[in-house]
Q: What sequence folds into this?
């Protein structure tokens, strides 16, 4: 139930599920093809054709090292363009387009209009522009207009001085200089105790080793200072239990893939190791992390380790299973000896999923939930708490800048849920010595920010799903000194596109505000009475709603076919609204049931605001944790939810990885969301199913095991229930390629059939892909 890297990923899969009882169609005789085509205006290709007048919502900004100018790339209808902006001179000029680089390099068959903005980048000096096309890189030198072609070496990490490269081979570490021989740095690596990046996941499979891809990417190392020493984590999974996937499409015989995944309540857990190496060679140092289950955070190599400024100390966080206690530690880089600086063990557990720390001259900053919200606090080196630096009824997220004297910091924090959508980032400045903080922006929007190296200016792109982006430059006081780009949505609106409506309603307790978005059919559609589709994700880490302008959001495309599509949060969905909100599953005492009452209340509340919604035709769709929630709703409240699509759902959290399960819900038997019988499961609800339910799962899912959907399917069969099941033979947790489009259309067809009486087509895809 890990949150996927973006909301778009969840929504693309979530829009593959929803159903309710058949009612007379309000859209005349419009068949599946007719209804599906109404969403074309929301397709990525259609939106891109009208994107020239829309500023980027999340630009990848590269400041010059002297902080005098910055660069960013943006998509155009048929190209990608790179711009240079000088805030002092108030100028913005186009540097080059991807089409120019492709033409000069003689590249054929790659339309510039198919490339993302991220394909085009520039070095910090603005001398060379890079265009990445698959595994190839085109480097354009602006001084002489020449282009070179290369394949970037992604298998090695380069030292800060550029003299050493570090890579892995057969699970061990190696290093070399540009003209020197390779030096083997470790010799005890093996399959399930590997330094290879391809094996560095929380629950790795052996497929990378089988296919030779384990060493294709650089090891996940962190350099210590500007020298040659680095740290790296390794998981010892040799005694951890196995899971398996069967690749039925492998030739000539199906192939079994082995995976290591600790499950909730098990005792044979991975051992998390922390090592220090020198790229020059010599003996390695193993940091004495003790027998703590988690070092850094739940995911090895994903943060929670911080080298000191002088390179002599390695600070790190370590956590017990379930995060019942956390310690901030300092390791001697030379010896690996560890001392504890700070320990937190609150009675209701520690809720900070990603620890954060900043070293100061006379103390340090540490993010903690001691106040009920996640705030940065100032501590002295004895571990004594001095004061909160980021106070208020909001949670802080990241430190963007610390002044050289350590007296002031700029940071991001979530908005105040009492007044506005809390998922939005706002930018704040705080005085560390006094704990006084104030926002630097005023706009009711989400802010994407990139600071200049000198901290005097920053780029701010602010937007909402219903507010097209504006890109500005602000000074350190938050004053806008230049507007780089603004947006004009008139062309989008003329095409029939429609922005979602902002939603604020109340939870089942009739007191807690819930925030979300409602998509309705486009401006060129005849709405009539609309069935409602709830696109859900229960959290608890994130509620997965959109936060920035996203004109090709898949929910808009689904709504255009004749639905009201609601995405809204619920108590227990996220940490950003405070510990009590996050721990609502503890109050309910169930990992399964906690989001349903709030979702029902939200749907009723929204229907009262939008009379076009038919409250008797309610459906629910979701992916991953949303798949769990969708299936739960169909069985827990069968009189309310009539159609459901549940993809890749963790229907039985006993069959999901221990780290996330116990962090979010505690021990299955003794934790606050457990019971003497363990976590509540969806298969226990199978006899209650009444409506139409479609279950979808990838056969090779290496996040939520296929067994989750198989266990629910078995229970439904034993209960004699009529349900639908789709297994995708080649797919993992995130659906890709033709399967993703197939699932989108399958979901739409399922919803149209059972909510509006539209007969599903014989051929879901317009044309069968060649060779498929």
A:
């Amino acid at each position: 139930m890990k949150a996927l890297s973006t909301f778009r990923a969840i929504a693309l899969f979530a829009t593959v599920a929803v159903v309710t009882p058949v009612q007379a169609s309000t859209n005349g005789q419009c068949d599946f093809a007719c209804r599906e085509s109404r969403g074309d205006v929301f397709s990525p290709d259609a939106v891109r054709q009208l994107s020239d007048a829309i500023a980027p919502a999340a630009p990848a900004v590269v400041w010059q090292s002297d902080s005098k100018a910055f660069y960013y790339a943006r998509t155009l209808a048929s190209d990608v363009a790179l711009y240079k902006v000088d805030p002092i001179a108030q100028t913005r000029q186009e540097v080059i387009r991807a089409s120019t680089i492709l033409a000069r390099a003689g590249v054929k068959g790659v339309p510039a209009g198919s490339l993302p903005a991220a394909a085009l980048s520039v070095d910090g000096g603005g001398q060379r522009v890079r265009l990445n096309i698959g595994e190839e890189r085109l480097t354009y030198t602006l001084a002489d207009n020449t282009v070179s072609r290369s394949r970037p070496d992604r298998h090695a990490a380069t030292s800060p001085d550029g003299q050493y490269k570090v890579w892995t081979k057969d699970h061990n570490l190696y290093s070399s200089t540009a003209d020197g021989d390779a030096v083997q740095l470790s010799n005890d690596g093996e399959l399930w105790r590997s330094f290879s990046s391809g094996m560095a996941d929380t629950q790795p499979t052996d497929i990378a080793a089988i296919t030779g891809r384990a060493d294709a990417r650089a090891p996940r190392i962190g350099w210590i200072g500007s020298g040659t020493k680095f740290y790296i984590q390794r998981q010892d999974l040799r005694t951890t239990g196995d899971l398996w996937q069967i690749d039925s499409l492998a030739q000539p015989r199906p192939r079994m893939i082995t995976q290591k995944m600790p499950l909730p309540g098990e005792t044979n857990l991975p051992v998390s190791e922390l090592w220090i190496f020198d790229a020059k060679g010599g003996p390695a140092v193993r940091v004495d992390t003790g027998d703590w289950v988690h070092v850094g955070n739940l995911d090895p190599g994903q943060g929670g380790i911080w080298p000191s400024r002088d390179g002599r100390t390695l600070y790190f966080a370590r956590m017990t299973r379930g995060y019942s206690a956390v310690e901030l530690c300092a390791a001697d880089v030379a010896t690996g000896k560890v001392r504890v600086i700070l320990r937190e063990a609150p009675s209701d557990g520690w809720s900070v999923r990603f620890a954060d720390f900043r070293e100061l001259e006379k103390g340090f900053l540490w993010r903690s939930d001691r106040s009920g919200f996640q705030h940065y606090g100032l501590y002295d080196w004895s571990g004594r708490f001095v004061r909160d630096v980021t106070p208020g009824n909001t949670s802080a997220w990241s430190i963007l800048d610390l002044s050289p004297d350590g007296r002031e910091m700029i940071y991001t924090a979530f908005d105040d849920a009492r007044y506005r959508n809390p998922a939005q980032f706002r930018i704040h400045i705080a005085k560390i010595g006094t704990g006084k903080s104030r926002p630097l922006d005023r706009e009711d929007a989400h802010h994407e920010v990139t600071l200049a190296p000198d901290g005097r200016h920053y780029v701010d792109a602010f937007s909402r799903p219903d507010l097209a982006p504006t890109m500005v430059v602000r000074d350190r006081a938050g004053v806008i000194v230049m507007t780089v780009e603004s947006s004009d949505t008139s062309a989008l609106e003329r095409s029939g596109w429609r922005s979602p409506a902002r939603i604020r309603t109340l939870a089942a307790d009739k007191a807690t505000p819930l925030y979300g978005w409602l998509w309705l059919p486009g401006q060129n559609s005849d709405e009539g009475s609309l069935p409602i589709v709830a696109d859900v994700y229960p959290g608890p880490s994130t509620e997965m709603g959109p936060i920035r302008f996203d004109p090709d959001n898949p929910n808009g495309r689904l709504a255009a076919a004749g639905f009201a599509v609601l995405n809204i949060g619920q108590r227990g969905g996220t940490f950003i609204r405070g510990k009590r909100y996050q721990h609502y599953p503890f109050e309910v005492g169930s990992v399964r049931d906690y989001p349903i009452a709030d979702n029902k209340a939200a749907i009723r509340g929204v229907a009262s605001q939008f009379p076009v919604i038919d409250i008797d035709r309610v459906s629910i769709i979701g992916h991953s944790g949303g798949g769990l929630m969708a299936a739960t709703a169909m069985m827990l409240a069968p009189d309310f939810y009539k159609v459901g699509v549940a993809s890749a759902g963790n229907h039985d959290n006993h069959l999901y990885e221990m780290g996330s399960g116990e962090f979010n819900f505690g021990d299955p038997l003794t934790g606050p969301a457990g019971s003497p019988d363990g976590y509540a499961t969806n298969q226990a609800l199978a006899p209650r199913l009444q409506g139409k339910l479609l279950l979808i799962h990838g056969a090779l899912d290496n996040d939520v095991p296929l067994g989750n959907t198989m266990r629910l399917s078995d229970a439904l069969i034993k209960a004699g229930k009529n349900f639908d099941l789709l297994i995708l033979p080649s797919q993992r947790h995130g659906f890709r390629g033709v399967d993703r489009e197939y699932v989108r259309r399958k979901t739409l067809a399922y919803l149209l059939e059972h909510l509006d009486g539209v007969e599903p087509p014989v051929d879901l895809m317009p044309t069968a892909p060649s060779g498929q």
About this structure: The chain has a mean pLDDT of 91.
